[in-house]
Amino acid sequence: MTSLSLSRRGLMACAATTALGVIPAAARAEQGATLDTELGWLDGIPPARHEGLTWGVPWPQGVHRRGQAFAALDAAGQPVPLQTWPLATWPDGSLKWTGHSVPASKAPASALRIVSGRPVLPRNAVTVRTLAGWFEVSVGPIVWTVPHSGSALIASATRDGRTVMGDVRLVCLRQDQPELSETAPLVQQRFESEIREAVLEQSGPVRAVIRLEGTHRSGDRSWLPFTVRLYFHAEGEAVRIVHSFIFDGDENRDFIRGLGIEASAPLRDPLHERHIRFAGEGGGLWAEAVRPLTGLRRDPGKPYRDAQIAGQAVPPVEQMDPRVRDRLDLIPAWGDFTLSQPTSDGFAIRKRTGPGHGWIDAAGGEKAPGLVYVGGVSGGVAMGLANFWKAGPSRLDVRGAAEDEARVTAWLWSPDAPAMDLRFYHDGLGMTTHARQNEGLEITYEDYEPGWGTPYGVARTSELTLWALGETPSRDALSEMAQGVETPPRLVCAPARIRSVEVFGDWSLPDRSTPLRTQIEHRLDGLLDLYRDQIVQRRWYGFWNYGDVMHSYDADRHEWKYDIGGFAWANSELSPDLWLWYSFLRTGRADVFRMAEAMTRHSSEVDCYHIGPHRGFGTRHGVQHWGDSSKQPRVSNAAFRRIYFYLTADERIGDLMRSLVGSDETLTRVQIRRKRPAAGDPAPGGPIVDAGFGTDWSSFLAAWMTEWERTGDTRWRDRIVTGMRSLAALPRRWFHGGGHYDVRTGRFVSAGDGISISHLNAVFGAVETHSELLRLVDVPGYRAAWIEYCKWYNAPAAELEAHLGGRVGTRGLPQGHSRLTAYAAHHLHDEPLARRAAHEFLDQTHFEDFRLESRRRTVAGSDVLNTVEEDPGMSTNGVSQWGLAAIQTLALIPDALDAVGTSDPSATTGRPH
Q1: Apex CA 389: angle with CA 526 and CA 386, to 5°?
Q2: N or C, which terminus of the chain has less Cβ within 10 Å?
Q3: What angle do the packed helices 576-587 and 876-892 form, to 10 degrees?
Q4: What pLDDT does residue 673 have?
């Protein structure tokens, strides 16, 4: 476990703001002048090398104007080239978040500090020329040519005028059946990228970004729309590639057999000076030549053998032992190489001399980091695929290494594997009516309806690195490159630095100053450890699965309910995304960051629809990520993405959040209560729709708030304010649960007289969104409505009924909602209410509440396939809500927690009060 820390001075500067979570406006400017802006390495130590880095930094309101220049200093106070751009602004127009980038480095600084001032330029700045039909990106001796159209993402890369890389393109192998059939021939078709748009998003001097959009084409058919971003950094030899595609095929006839990106590598060197490299585990390297000079019956001489092993030019062939020199043509030249990783548990390397000849098994291992190289002393190409063994089946290929040009392919979906099969997993089980479908929901918790469990419109993002090299790198250098592919280095602000700014609502740094707080912190850490280990033990890996976790546990089978309807993949249910991100914010743990990053990548792509009738909505939890028929904005929620975006300045996540700003319109096509409509529901297809305040409207709020602060466009603020005022004007405000909403204006137009209290309304980011949003906009009537809901949700039934003047039903998740009570207590300065919130959090008498003590144990032997650990009561819903409640109550009412925990020991043992 790795965590970040600030200097003693930085910690002391932040300490005063930690307890209350609010920085007084009058103090902001003074604090900003001395605000510690140290950056640390996510993994605690500098990497051996990196290919350029990007990250985000928050700033207090009113400290820096939008055009402020920033510089970077290393640990010795020496300037480091820096590129800066705004990510978000406060309502007064001052900077809230900035994005920063530094050049590639083979000797990274141990620390960086961001200060106000003019940045220095890099020695080899990135420059971009826009020419007729292509961009020309220059980084020192390397010139990359990026066409505006055609099939090539990159046409070539040259070094000092010599071409070391040819065209780079996307490839897809599609077949019309999932497997061979006895009744019909299997037809396979190759598709290649076709670029339709090329946009220069940044042009240097430290970083240049080009966005390419297009589809995969073969003949008259185009499908699988893609977005590819190319990132070039000063001083670098590589381009970072972020590749996203959308599945828009027919899952019953479009089966992807292979999906990848391939690059050509011109080869000029003699066969014995051409080299193939595959990275292995723990810094290992499989390294061989196309034509080996070692192991022969006759020895060419030690200098020749040593040079070839090192990947360097051998001495003149004329000086070689003639018994070898005159028979070089009789040594087989190996032209094709493959490293295949079909599962997370193993990979194999094979090679052959060429097409039409047999493959020879070469080597193998467990978890390959995903790096391949082909080339020689005249140059070469290396390619790395992130999450190689985690997101398979994956494969790395070299083809034609004995010819004048080789092709290197990173397969995101390996052709070795069975074809990608996205069909629904059962035949409907006779559930042809809503009545039968609701019966199915009762037994498997799956919301099924024919035609709704479609993958049409889901997406997937992969990250690659592509090097254009002047010669074969040393073995150590290749291992360092592989390490950067498998564990990308990151610069991040320390928790105390982020905490010192009013961002992301209510959270605090870990606090072990009392026995109860220590116990809570220990449990928080233990739950993070548990899920980190469950990912490994349960093999929650794979192309469509990596990043997600399971929803519920079957203690009888000692197995998560991977095959039971709505109990399988979590799909962001009850906000595990936020639990992980707030856990990272306060601890700085590298393992937690990577769990949260993987979940954000997955849930924002795979669990959501990006085109089609469900565009902008996500899918409820289920056996397949897209399989459940309930499509809702609570899953596509921008609240689950924004922390990652601001910490990393990731453009793809920015695109996905921006695409949600109009997603309330999807409610005109997707009625969330379509199986159980209520009397008086709006007619389908019109501008007036039924919308829940929390699961629907609050999800839209997160997107609008983010777009407002990213662009400064006040129409999104105005839409938020319009909705707030209309909701606050309803008779029972939040206790209606939802209302009739006009997608044209953003207003709630009615909600009737009924009381509707859903335990789900506030647990999909609504609490976190409001905690931040209400610091940005001032609508007193709505603020009072929200605090009313927070104060009264968990109140005794008789008191709530007296307050509302009507009957209330069962209210679930009281422990998770303790943080709402704590929010109200904090803002109302109400000590008795704070004690009630503490009781709600510490009480463990409800079936859905989570225990403070762990019951983690090991299960082995014939009871399970592999030795695993379990906590019999573990549930992602429970863990997520308990974790968020713990984090937020610790931030809002820490003294009340201590008082209740000390005066009532049963509160922490599960015994009834």
Answers
A1: 90
A2: C
A3: 40
A4: 82
| Rounded distance between C-alpha atoms, residue 764 and residue 621, angstroms | 13
| DSSP structure class, residue 313 | P
Residue listed under structure tokens 């039971």:
564
Q: How far is Cα 151 from Cα 171, in angstroms, rounded to an integer?
A: 10
Residue 603: Cβ within 10 Å count: 25
Checking 716-723 for CB contacts under 8 A at 24+ apart, the result is: 716/661, 717/91, 717/776, 717/777, 719/746, 720/746, 720/773, 720/777, 721/777, 721/779, 722/746, 722/747, 723/697, 723/747, 723/748
Separation between Cα atoms, residue 655 and residue 201, nearest integer Å = 13
Sequence-distant (6+) residues with CB within 8 A of 53 are 101, 102, 489, 490, 491
Q: Quick one: DSSP state of residue 608?
A: B
| pLDDT attached to residue 133 | 96
Six-digit token pair at 796? 């005794």
Q: Are 467 and 481 in contact (CB under 8 A)?
A: yes
Nearest C-alpha neighbor of 702 from the set 663, 743, 650: 663
Q: Which residues of the chain have pLDDT under 70?
A: 1-36, 846-849, 905-913
The residue type found at 667 is L
- State the pLDDT at residue 15: 32
Q: How many CB atoms lie within 10 A of CB 330?
A: 7
Q: Please, what are the domains in the chain?
A: 37-116 (no CATH), 124-291+332-418+462-491 (2.70.98)
Tell me the two tokens of residue 177.
Answer: 């059946």
| Tokens (6 digits) for 159 | 């070094």
Which uninterrupted H or E stretch holds 272?
none
Q: Is the dihedral of CA 644, 645, 648, 650 positive or negative?
A: positive
Residue 806 CA, distance from chain mean position:
44
Closest by Cα among 26, 24, 37 to 70: 37
**Residue of 855, 843, 767 lying closest to 582 (CA atoms):** 767
**In whole angstroms, what is the distance from residue 451 CA to residue 184 CA?**
26
The model carries a pTM of 0.95
CB 874 within 8 A of CB 851: no
Say if residues 381 and 400 touch (Cβ distance below 8 Å). no
Name, in order, each residue with C-beta under 8 angstroms of 573's C-beta and a sequence gap of 6 or more. 551, 620, 621, 876, 877, 880
Phi, psi of 389 (to 5 degrees): -85, -15
Contacts of 297 (CB under 8 A, 6+ apart): none
CA distance to 3, 64, 434, 866, per residue, from 13 (Å): 19, 18, 59, 49
pLDDT value of residue 5 = 38
Q: Tell me, what's the pLDDT at 181?
A: 85
User: Looking up tokens 């809503």, which residue turns up?
Assistant: 434
Secondary structure of 167-190 in the HEC alphabet?
Answer: CEEEEEEEECCCCCCCCCCCCEEE
Q: Reduce the DSSP state of residue 674 to 3 states and report it.
A: coil
Q: How far apart are the first and last CA of the chain?
A: 37
400: region left, alpha or beta (phi > 0 left; psi from -120 to 50 alpha): left
| Residue of 68, 70, 53 whose CA lies nearest to 117 | 70
CA distances in angstroms from 727 to 308, 697, 720, 722, 723, listed in the order given? 74, 10, 11, 9, 6
